[in-house]
Amino acid sequence: MEIIETVKGGYVRNMLREGKRTGGRGMMDFRSISVRAGVMPNAEGSAQADVGDTRVLVGVKMMPEDPMPDTPDQGNMITNAELLQLAYEEYEPGPPSPESVEFARVVDRGIRAANCIDLTSLVLEDKKVWSIFIDLYVLNYGGNLFDAGYLAAMAALMNAKVPNYKDGAADHRQRDKSLKIDNIVTSATFGKIDGSVLLDMDINEERIADTRLTVAADGSVIRAMQKGLRGSLTVQEVRDMIGVSMEKHAQLKSVLETAVKEAK
């Protein structure tokens, strides 16, 4: 297995030296992208996002709960991620791994920083608030979890319906009102391999990457950034990545809006 991975890595490096990538796409091109919303009817909102071979499923659930002590005038948003064993041979059962914690936090941070949901609008009577649970499940890992995770999470939130609330309880069988979404955030994740900078690394590219940077933006403002691995980036490389992420946002936003419209 190790020999096979070494051969694959060598092939990728040779391609990059020639300014090429496997599959024939450009350095700043995404793989094929597909988003389907409303895939789980029992959830308040749901979506599946495929970026190349990577597949992420997201379910959104809403429950009336007490607010956090430091934010009594806001609802709660909790994001969790599960890297299922069926998705990748190296994923293991048990407590959340560092990779799953990072995945959940990166997606949560961008959505929260972009003010996609007005948490003050989630306050209920009797000092209760809505808690929004965003659960990410990796069904297949083929590289670049973050961008697929953002797409699935945003589509699920845009697809979500708020349960009816009466007498201190939620009626999940009656969901008549859409969850109000004030902003749409997407991410673009870049890698650097032997000096070559590329968008949306596949699994073979990720295995030999020197560094990684995820930029979450809403088309006008950078909302969050996350660097991974030990390699470095120049100031100009970071600026270029930010510019590409802004450009790609329009494309990704259109994919999200189409998916949610088709689900209605």
What do these coordinates show?
This protein is an alpha+beta fold and 264 residues long. It has a single domain, classed as Ribosomal Protein S5, domain 2. It is 31% helix and 33% strand. The protein has five helices and eleven strands, in the order αββββαβαββββαββα. It has a five-stranded mixed beta sheet. It has a four-stranded antiparallel beta sheet with strand order 9-8-10-11, with helices on both faces. The N and C termini lie far apart (46 Å). The model has no long low-confidence stretch (mean pLDDT 94).
Question: Helix and strand layout, with pairings?
Answer:
Blueprint: H1 2-17, E1 33-37, E2 45-51, E3 54-65, E4 76-83, H2 98-113, E5 129-140, H3 145-159, E6 161-166, E7 169-178, E8 186-193, E9 196-199, H4 203-207, E10 211-217, E11 222-228, H5 235-263
Parallel strand pairs: 4-5
Antiparallel strand pairs: 1-2, 2-3, 3-5, 6-7, 8-9, 8-10, 10-11
Keywords:
Ribosomal Protein S5, domain 2
Average of pLDDT = 94
Shape: elongated
CATH fold category name:
Ribosomal Protein S5, domain 2
Biggest β-sheet: count, sense, barrel? 5 strands, mixed
Low-confidence segments, ≥5 residues, pLDDT <50? none
Please report which band the strand proportion falls in: under 5%, 5-15%, 15-25%, 25-35%, 35-45% or over 45%.
25-35%
> Number of helix segments?
5
Task: Give a short synopsis of this structure.
The chain has 264 residues and is of the alpha+beta class. The protein has five helices and eleven strands; from the N terminus they run αββββαβαββββαββα. The protein has one domain (2-263): GHMP Kinase, N-terminal domain (Ribosomal Protein S5, domain 2).
